[in-house]
């Protein structure tokens, strides 16, 4: 008789289910938040602690290995082009589904959960003046140590690329520095593996708090929006990303199965940062070059938020429909353009999709007060869009690797066999 292996994915799932049960039993009891919040906060802090050193060291090693500024520039151009195309498709799909389903039509506004959105307003006022030019200006840091301290990912990526190119350009003199960063990267991946062992406790705490605050009934008055959002996310992954995967000769369902651990963790914590280090490691094992995995995945968290942009389009129409506001085609095109700009470069902001909506709605005449009605379940919707972001960024890494002619299909096939064997033996 085979011994059942209690894998990390199973442990996280148990933590998720246990958190839902505890939250439901103690619904409305503030003691749950008091007890569980420190656990959830510690887990998220552990994740934030490792993201910057891993991204910085991995990028430096990857770019120094490429060593050619023309190749790096070519890689960056292709990556941003792909991101822009996919996120535009996501926004268009969100607007199309919002117009067909009409999730906000016929809902009694007085029955909706009202939540304060004051905590997002200050951030939104900054984002409202966040132009496309500002995104690119802010990529260049004035002080790299300040950027490292603030976790400003775009600035860190820019400096890492320049530093990596510098190491590659000085040849033999740069090799000791390169070996140092290789050691840092390996050490940080070890630290990541240790931190991941605490994930079930973090998931349990974060889900328990969410359910205890809003209850299992939180989805009922806003069920139409939740069902529309989740349905759109599933459609986007299976059809849109499925077609992209097919174009690069990958089965989307096998790819999702490959990412199951990361998807469970991303969904339950609603945090892309929680899986970023493991995604980079996994995509490298799947056959993507280290240089591409180290560049594409961190950059994707600022420029390729597929799930977030899809949700923002649906939510904007939902609020307009709540107030009985008809948005003509030109206004919706304007909304699409504004979302394309405001959603870039602010991935590190808490509740980023909510903040982007706050910054965007006023530009097309939709009352921002409407966001107070969906703030209560934003966490539940955030879980879905985070999982979609993870699939989108992982697939982007494969697409760019293939586009560059550097994808290793034999390595990918061997890794899938290894994963399947582990699943069978466990």
From TrEMBL:
Spans traversing the lipid bilayer: 7-27, 47-67, 79-101, 153-171, 201-221, 227-248, 310-331, 351-375
GO annotation, cellular component aspect: plasma membrane
InterPro entries: Na-dicarboxylate_symporter (IPR001991), Na-dicarboxylate_symporter_CS (IPR018107), Na:dicarbo_symporter_sf (IPR036458)
Subcellular location: Cell membrane
Pfam family, one: SDF
GO molecular function, one term: symporter activity
Gene3D superfamilies: Sodium:dicarboxylate symporter
UniProt entry tagged with the keyword Nucleotidyltransferase: no
Membrane topology of the entry: Multi-pass membrane protein
Alphabetical list of SUPFAM superfamilies matching this protein: Proton glutamate symport protein
Membrane found in the keyword field: yes
Keyword annotations from UniProtKB, A to Z: Cell membrane, Membrane, Symport, Transmembrane, Transmembrane helix, Transport
GO BP term (any one): dicarboxylic acid transport
Name of the protein in question: Glutamate:protein symporter
The organism of origin for this protein: Clostridium estertheticum subsp. estertheticum
